[in-house]
Target: HAD family hydrolase
Amino acid sequence: MSDALAVHAAAAPTSIVFDVGGVLYDWHPRYLYEKLIDDPARLEDFLSRVVTHEWHFQHDEGRPVAETSAELIARFPEHRELIEAYNPRWLETIPGPIPGMIDLVDEIAAAGIPLYAITNFSHEFWPRFIATAPVFRHFREIVVSGDERMVKPDPRIFALAKARFGVSDGEALFIDDRADNVAASEAAGFVGHVFDGASNLRARLRELRLLG
Model:
């Protein structure tokens, strides 16, 4: 660890910045397509070749889903109906919150700790999703990659977030389920935590004296 990162790691943050998918809410295209494809082998083939994570992540970068869907249908015309289901039924890719996390966010908010988020998320899907998730009423500001056309772990999105949140080096704890995103956040001046469940996060918050 560099001297700069050691300073950030030793800092006592006063605000918390969450990732969304994989930290606050579960997400995977499988949750939708297992309803539409009965055969397990066909389902695995479809998710590995057609509606892949790589295809979806274009939306996080700001590409319109109508455009990416048309391209995918051109490549896989035999799957037109399944591909066309993705946009209107996208909310079915999110089955619900990660266990224990909504209660933990409510507790953090009740303690008066400022809450923010940086999420890789489509600018088209985000408004639909946030309308179903009242927990985000606790958040003062949320940086959405699809709006900004930059995605984690790009250093620019962390610099933008720091400026928008009004936090300096060491003042904010960033929580993400991906180690590369956490490493990038630490390089940008956040204190990082790789998420591996609500109980371990709660322990980290106590260690940092963010919760009693």
